[in-house]
Design a protein that fits this description.
With about 220 residues, the protein is an alpha/beta fold. It has 8 helices and 7 strands. The chain binds magnesium ion (MG) and zinc ion.
């Protein structure tokens, strides 16, 4: 084994250990956590904005937002009704890692939270390689990105527990073949639970929210 490969493996090993610590901390506090991943502009923040008001009367929701710069997304989450929102600026790093989530958790009172949505940095490559300690991973795809994305970014589609297909309101205007897209997903992640929806019109969002609620209830049992 080359020295370089062993260095990379050590970094990943350290990240995984820390991810386990994060998971233990979330479990102890009874906080169900979801890692939201997507390319920039797919609609992670818009999905959070649609999700928060639908759950506000039954769950206490917090958001941790990872971005290279600014606190725009955490501000949007707070405005949408999150009981707490934390912005992590990665300073150039194109994904969140377990250390960053650990720091984010340190800024929250976990005893006051039922559900934590973690918005990863917009990127279809390396967020899939860094476990955070969250309970579920969700990929937010969107119609304008094109129907070839599962074929081009297989690693991202392989590891996730659910898939949101956002911006379905644009389907009449964009040559996006849903069958072709879904076939690509099926090869990588057979039977993946999928939510076509539009954060703009709200169509399909309730099914996604029901999936979240179901997961939180199973977790709390
Ligand atoms: Mg965002
Ligand atoms: Zn990265």
């Amino acid at each position: 084994m080359s020295e370089r490969i062993s260095v990379v493996e050590n970094i990943m090993g350290a990240n995984d250990r820390l991810a386990e610590d994060n998971r233990a901390r979330l479990d102890a506090a009874g906080v169900f956590a979801v890692n939201l991943m997507a390319s920039p502009g797919a609609g992670k923040t818009s999905l959070i904005e649609q999700t928060l008001p639908r759950l506000a009367d039954q769950l206490r929701l917090a958001v941790i937002d990872g971005d290279i710069a600014t606190s725009i997304d955490a501000d949007r989450a707070a405005a949408a009704g999150a009981v707490a929102s934390v912005q992590i600026n990665t300073g150039g790093q194109c994904h969140l890692d377990a250390v960053m989530l650990q720091q984010g958790l340190g800024q929250l009172d976990l005893s006051q939270i039922d559900l934590l949505l973690v918005e990863n940095v917009g990127n279809l490559v390396c967020p899939a390689d860094f476990r955070l300690g969250t309970h579920k991973s969700v990929l937010v795809a969107s119609v304008p990105e094109g129907d070839d994305k599962p074929y081009k970014y297989p690693g991202m589609y392989r590891g996730v527990d659910a898939l949101v297909i956002n911006k379905t309101d644009l389907l009449p205007y964009i040559p996006f073949k849903m069958d072709y897209f879904r076939r690509g997903v099926e090869v990588l992640n057979a039977g993946l639970v999928t939510f076509p929806l539009s954060c703009k019109t709200g169509e399909g969002v309730d099914a996604w929210v029901a999936w979240i609620v179901e997961n939180v209830q199973t977790f709390k049992r």
